[in-house]
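Note to self: keep these together.
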Amino acid sequence: MKRGFGKAEKGYVLAFACCGMMLVLLMLGGGRRFHADQVYGYLLPNSSYTYLDESAVAGWPAQVVCYAKNEIYARNGRRFVSTELQNWFNMQYWYTPIYTPEQFSDSMLNAYETANVQMLSNVEASLGMYALDGNSYSYDLVRSYLSPGGGSQYYVNPDTYIFYDSDSRYLTDSDLSNLSAQELCYAKNEIYARRGYIFASTELSDYFNAKNWYWGTNDASTFSDSVFNSIEVANVSLLQQKEFSLVPGGYVLDQPGYTYQNIGSYSGGYVAQATSSDYIIYDSAVRYLSEAEVSALSLQQMCYARNEIYARRGYIFQSQELRDYFGSKSWYYPTVPAQSFSDQVFNSVEIANIDLLKRVEYSINPNGYQLY
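Structure:
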């Protein structure tokens, strides 16, 4: 499909969201809806990769400390007996409930998380311990302690998108029925913006640069539509068709007096849910792999499976091949730049599996799989 830069700018970047470890074995339950009046984020965004001390929660009430402690468990997929906690975490876009309390083991926590749970438990005990599931519990106090912007430049509020899930869900005519030509144009280019295109249009450049999930990485001369998955291709086509049906030739960018005031968020659709088929080895974070099963993989699969363990921990890849591959996964939330990443975020199972995958890969080819 031919696109002119004057009326339909392109973009390409990974959508970055701050998330702790996502041990997604199999998403349970139905799709989660996002609403503009919900509050999203973390109480302690860096609790999975930084040792915290009591100053991090100085002055916090017992309820908030209790929630911050359980946030660490929630980030690792634990479900809760407490209705109060379960309902709170169900509201968080980053939460993937996997394990029952009986199935969950503290061995799934890394060294940072283990230390931070202990610190928070001590602080909560000093405050008298918070009693969960009281008759009149409220989340109002907890909401007030959510870190601004999620406490991290990588936190993403789903309502900062026109369509948060346009890379993972086919949009329908009904979804687009109330959008203006400008919104349709922006929603179309939002799909490109996820893929990091550096916009020539001042209007689009300013709009997307204000989004903390936008990283402009690809110039027009290097961009290729081949980075899109089939859902993105279909949605770009539908959005442009609707846009052009309202305004022949499409919305005209960079006209004097343009404003973003009427750009809305329509992220009420279901967000894609990760399943075991979205992984090379879906349980490599909680199960020791065998040499036999690793040897059955191709060289590329071995490389991807090893880096999949890093991806679960939010590693931001430098390789474009890995950025493209993991960027297509709904469970991937890149949060930690390479220079800030520490292997201490891994648990003992992950460390063993990384070593095994690397050893087998390099035993087959001394140079390993060659990433582009």
